[in-house]
Design a protein that fits this description.
Elements: H1 6-26, H2 28-34, H3 39-66, H4 72-91, H5 97-113, H6 115-127, H7 134-159, H8 162-181, H9 189-201, H10 208-214, H11 216-237, H12 239-245, H13 250-277, H14 280-300, H15 304-312, H16 318-332, H17 338-367, H18 369-394, H19 397-400
Helix pairs in contact: 1-7, 1-8, 3-5, 3-17, 4-5, 4-6, 4-8, 6-17, 7-13, 11-14, 11-17, 11-18, 13-15, 13-16, 14-15, 14-16, 14-18, 16-17, 17-18
Length: 404
């Protein structure tokens, strides 16, 4: 294929990934509750998955950054194949809670682990001469999530939760095939050797402590991100319980996730142009504040309309944060830290999910939806303050990366 198809192919990869992200993540509660799990057990399953992925993301990213045998593309392909096989396996253990728990935890983990590799693959291919519009591709990924969610809600009501697994099998089969043929063009060997030499000289940054020492304010920023995503993950993972509390069901869940995801598309598609006018630090703070507003509106909601208004703030919160943070890490990290930078951002997102899953499931069972949302608001507010404190000093390169 010619270069003009790079964006198209990378867009298809994003669409398929986020279609599966919808089935596995957005409908995790629906699937597990239907299989007989309690809210606390659902929270435990998601917490274990998030803990595993917090460690798995930088571990895999470190192996890729060393550039020996594992690449971003191979990681994406193997991970997609695992999700395919895992979905088939769940169809055969539909009444056994222990294997369901174990397989689902691994699938949830793997899908989180390879997200930063998908992001890094875009920048890797761009350096090889592939003209890819990252914002558009990522926005279309959200559209894929939205369309999947819209139809999946009604399908689950009509045919049962196993339809979630059938959809996952279908999209991951296509994903494996497309990624298999999505090969980076060959680059100048002299340039590659030069880059490898530079990377070899910078291996001292491979460890977590060395990375944290090198990018101190970036680590503070990640703490704020984790707090904001505590609230974000709380809403996503327990949205069906929130909707039921407001008088809705799985159909409204489909509409709600469709709304928030489809609104991400225009924002993500245009974020590259926005960042030319407004600095990344301002956009990151703006997104953090929007996470808080989204949670506050949902806390104050007395009906489904309030829930839909809250979901629409996704376009200012998540839709702004994800591409802005990706560009940010790409711009401020040294060459052999770039994949780790993307991985640590995703680890922070996941870490927020860990605490959300551990705490919110139990709170939901003990005190109900309103108390859970109130706690989410408080944690998110702390996250906003930390992000504000962190990102402005971070823009000073002398503070951001010692030794640059």
């Amino acid at each position: 294929m010619k270069n003009r198809f790079w964006t198209l192919r990378y867009t298809l990869i994003n669409i398929l990934y986020f279609a599966a992200f919808c089935t596995i993540h957005a409908y995790a509660g629906v699937f597990l509750l239907d299989k007989g799990f309690t809210n606390t057990q659902v929270g435990l399953a998601l917490a274990i998955s998030n803990i595993l992925s917090v460690f798995g993301q930088p571990l895999v990213a470190g192996i890729i950054d060393r550039g020996k045998f594992l690449t971003n593309r191979i990681t994406v392909m193997i991970s997609s194949l695992f999700l395919l096989v895992g979905s088939v396996a769940l169809l055969f253990v539909s009444s056994e809670k222990v294997p369901i728990f174990a397989i689902f935890v691994l699938m949830y983990t793997v899908q989180f682990v390879y997200m930063p590799m998908m992001i890094a693959m875009n920048f890797e291919y761009a350096k090889a001469g592939c003209n890819i519009n990252f914002g558009l591709a990522r926005g279309m990924g959200s559209a894929g999530f939205a369309v999947t969610s819209f139809f999946l809600g009604k399908a689950v009501e009509k045919y049962g939760t196993n339809v979630i697994l059938y959809v996952t099998v279908a999209v991951m089969t296509l994903m494996v095939l497309i990624v298999f043929f999505f090969k980076k063009p060959k680059t100048n060997k002299i340039k590659e050797e030069s880059e490898k030499t530079i990377e070899k000289e910078e291996k001292e940054s491979a460890g977590f402590l060395a990375f944290a020492k090198k990018y101190p304010f970036f680590m503070v920023f990640l703490l704020g991100v984790a707090c904001c995503f505590f609230a974000h993950n709380m809403i996503n993972d327990f949205l069906i319980q929130i909707i039921r509390n407001l008088g809705g069901n799985e159909t409204e869940l489909g509409y709600a996730t469709f709304l928030q995801a489809i609104l991400e598309l225009p924002v993500m598609a245009l974020i590259g142009f926005v960042l030319k006018k407004i600095s990344e630090r301002h956009m990151l703070v703006f997104s953090a504040v929007s996470f808080f507003v989204k949670t506050a509106i949902l806390f104050l909601a007395t009906g489904l309309i309030g829930m839909y208004v809250s979901q629409s703030f996704q376009m200012f919160a998540y839709a702004v944060f994800i591409p802005t943070a990706a560009y940010f890490a790409e711009n401020v990290m040294k060459e052999n830290d770039k994949v780790k930078g993307q991985a640590f951002i995703n680890s922070a997102l996941t870490l927020g999910g860990v605490f959300s899953n551990l705490v919110c499931g139990r709170i939901l069972d003990a005190f109900g939806v309103k108390v859970m949302l109130l706690i989410g608001m408080a944690v998110c507010f702390v996250g906003v303050l930390i992000v504000i404190i962190a990102v402005y000093p971070m823009m000073n390169k002398k503070v951001l990366a010692r030794g640059n």
